[in-house]
Amino acid sequence: xxxxxxxxxxxxxxxxxxxxxxxxxxxxxxxxxxxxxxxxxxxxxxxxxxxxxxxxxxxxxxxxxxxxxxxxxxxxxxxxxxxxxxxxxxxxxxxxxxxxxxxxxxxxxxxxxxxxxxxxxxxxxxxxxxxxxxxxxxxxxxxxxxxxxxxxxxxxxxxxxxxxxxxxxxxxxxxxxxxxxxxxxxxxxxxxxxxxxxxxxxxxxxxxxxxxxxxxxxxxxxxxxxxxxxxxxxxxxxxxxxxxxxxxxxxxxxxxxxxxxxxxxxxxxxxxxxxxxxxxxxxxxxxxxxxxxxxxxxxxxxxxxxxxxxxxxxxxxxxxxxxxxxxxxxxxxxxxxxxxxxxxxxxxxxxxxxxxxxxxxxxxxxxxxxxxxxxxxxxxxxxxxxxxxxxxxxxx
Length: 396
Description:
Blueprint: H1 15-21, E1 28-30, H2 43-50, E2 57-61, E3 70-73, H3 78-82, E4 89-93, H4 96-99, E5 118-126, E6 141-155, E7 180-184, E8 189-192, E9 197-213, H5 218-236, H6 259-272, H7 277-289, H8 306-316, E10 318-321, E11 327-332, E12 335-340, E13 343-348, H9 352-360, E14 363-365, H10 366-369, H11 376-388, E15 391-392
Antiparallel strand pairs: 1-8, 2-3, 2-4, 4-5, 5-9, 6-7, 6-8, 6-9, 10-14, 10-15, 11-12, 12-13
Helix pairs in contact: 5-7
């Protein structure tokens, strides 16, 4: 499947104006944002993906299910789909671009937002009146209409936790009062900042493409880093050291914690914490490049040595980047650090142009990288990425 997309049309504003005036600030409806857009995947093909056990999928059945707003989790079977009611249900499939690599092209128009912020492409198919109810999300989202029509209603009023319906698997609002309402058609785009309540309902059968963004919570960052530090401390034995006080002296009040005791225990904790911001910075790079736990690389390449890899690349010309693997980089002094799948690879800064192409492009031509491949160090990293399944040659 080859997807050709028009340039994203933001109407009368530029991407810079969008970021300044709308991003994380206010909703924006853009008519005909992708002129001539047609859904590159059919409802049956989407249902086929939902039948695979490596893909996260859900069915939301508003009526005629076991309970109101019943949620069923995949993988599904043809029998599951055959037993559904005629209307009021929705199929949602997550991370579609990581399983159907061609669909990553649908992410491209939105890469004026940094790659590390982009979470996934979710595709939903809904029968007439299908919906997941009025709700809010804690992240930014672009809602691209791909097939048929969907009515969107939004409200920018704060959403109280008391306004959430009890005893449901979904966070659906009890009361929702729309401030604005539109019907979107193929190619239309609705941007919603975090916490803007919205209610989408299918008008006939429809498909919607949701480009969602990741926004780590402070708790997630702190918990993740401290977990990382604890693992390291356990590995090197620092976390298993027992408190000792051979210099203990007699004190008048046994209930008193002395200043010396406090200082000693504080030092024990401080010794386990990072001594410089570089350690935190490197952990952040690895954290942001990690894939979701349930997503496997899935591409298994034959193990090649550097010379064979380069020859094969020259013969194929195009090397593909596995879109299930995040490849990012930072710059630090006289080097760049590549972060991929939770690992880091320091590389001299002279390769920055090649590193940027590796991280930015999905299709990497041999000619565009030829001038760096004579260097064994850089070529070895690319060969290693191929052997790990981060890169691959298109079999077609």
